[in-house]
Amino acid sequence: MKVNLLCSLRNVDEEVFQESHVDWIGVDRGTLELIKHNITPVEAVGDFDSVNELEIAEIKQKININPVKKEKDDTDLALAVDMAVSLNYKEICIYGATGGRLDHFMGAVQILTKPEFLNMDISISLVDQQNVITVLKPGMHKVDKIEHMNYVSFIPLNPNLRMKLDGFKYELPYTTLEQGSTLTISNEFKDDVKQPVAIVELGNILMIQSKDK
Question: By three-state DSSP, how is residue 91 classified?
Answer without folding.
Answer: strand
